Amino acid sequence: MDWWHGLILGLVQGLAEFLPISSSGHLTIMQETLGIGGEGNLAFDIAVHVATVLSTLVIFWKPIFGIGKGLFAKGMNREKDYVLKILVSMIPILLVGFLLKDTVERIFDTERIARHTGNPLLVVGICLIVTAILLLISEIISAVRDLKKGKDAEDKEQKLADRMTVNSEMSGPEKRKIFTLQNGINYWQAFLVGVAQSIAVLPGLSRSGSTIATGLMAKVRRTSLAQFVFIMVIVPILGEAFLELLKVLRGSDMGHFFTIPVLCGFLAAFVSGLFACRLMVGLLKKFRLWGFAVYCFIVGVLCIVLPYAIR
Predict the structure, then answer these.
(1) Contacts for 221 with CB less than 8 Å, ≥ 6 apart
(2) How far is residue 243 from each of residues 38, 102, 232, 263, 290, measured CA to CA in Å?
(3) What is the rounded CA–CA span in Å between residue 131 and residue 205?
(4) Cβ–Cβ < 8 Å for 17, 274
(5) CA–CA separation, 119 vs 68, rounded Å?
């Protein structure tokens, strides 16, 4: 891998991690196109994923700091309720990670798929089309809901919820209702979004696209959704990176992380991640995601068709 390979792949990772277009799918496409792979790529994948986590921490440092501060406050509060919902959302991905990760990697290995189908990008293409369908359905449902409730209904609901306060005389259910209104998501919705994240281990199925689409279909408030889905993935991504790091250390040493391509990829992923994360937060609050659905559909079809056409 040359330095410009790292730069390109880092830019792709940073953009595609937050935009609903699948970072794993686009990295696979680029790696197949550039013809690069091997043990060095494992170290590279770890580095660029850590970079995107750091960009998430930078963008959401204020709410994350507020959540951390609220955890040390006395009694149940909005921040503790939020953390509990984050933990609930992590249950499905933890189960998949511990029980099925190796199986999924074997089944969807690009070399194995290429041997059986002649197209290493076949699964990526199919999953990108599934991502497009999910985004399309969620936006249709969301648009219909806005027509019924009014486009500004969620903003008014959020402002009203932020003015609510809890006191010691309230019952547990009353407090939880207020916390749900303030955080814009309940425990069941958090679990469903977590299920979507666990399914998005498939290559080409966008993690952000799947979680955002599921959240919209489950009636999670748009103004709260981006922050939740991006913060909820911090621990799983770091956990996965740690497990991959152990693989690198068993096979070699830390030298793989201090090569020019890996460093270029890390910096590129961090900078492009900052841009994409901030962009996605704004898009989700104010705009529709039709364009991303069309993009994923077109790229998915090309992944399925082109490898056979150019042989």
Answers:
(1) 154, 157, 158, 184, 185
(2) 17, 12, 18, 20, 36
(3) 6
(4) no
(5) 47
Q: Is the pTM of this model over 0.85?
A: yes
How is 93-152 classified by DSSP, letter by letter?
Answer: HHHHHHHTHHHHHHHT-HHHHHHHHS-TTHHHHHHHHHHHHHHHHHHHHHHHHHHHH-TT
Token duo for residue 181: 């209104």
Q: Can you read off the two tokens belonging to residue 310?
A: 């150019």
CB of 67 within 8 A of CB of 60?
no
Q: How far is residue 5's CA from residue 12's CA, in Å, rounded to a whole number?
A: 11
Helices 153-162 and 172-183 sit at what angle, rounded to 10 degrees? Answer: 130
When pLDDT is cut at 50, 70 and 90, the band that residue 67 belongs to is very high
Token pair 């010691």: residue: 168
What number of other Cβ atoms are within 10 A of residue 243's Cβ?
Answer: 12
Length of the chain: 311
The residue whose two tokens read 């799918």 is 25
Please tell me what DSSP assigns to residue 60: T
In 3D space, the residue among 292, 306, 281 whose CA is nearest the CA of residue 132 turns out to be 292
Report pLDDT digits (tens) over 190-238: 999 999 999 998 889 999 999 999 999 999 988 889 899 999 999 888 8
Give dist(CA 95, CA 84) in Å, integer: 17
What percent of the chain has a predicted confidence (pLDDT) above 90?
50
Q: How would residue 151 be classed by pLDDT, with cut points 50, 70 and 90?
A: low
- Cβ atoms 77, 219 nearer than 8 A: no
Q: Which tokens go with 295?
A: 């993009």
User: Tell me: the pLDDT tens digits for 8-41?
Assistant: 999 999 999 999 999 989 988 988 888 875 545 6
Q: Are the C-beta atoms of residues 6 and 261 closer than 8 Å to each other?
A: yes
- Provide the residue type at 201 as one letter: V
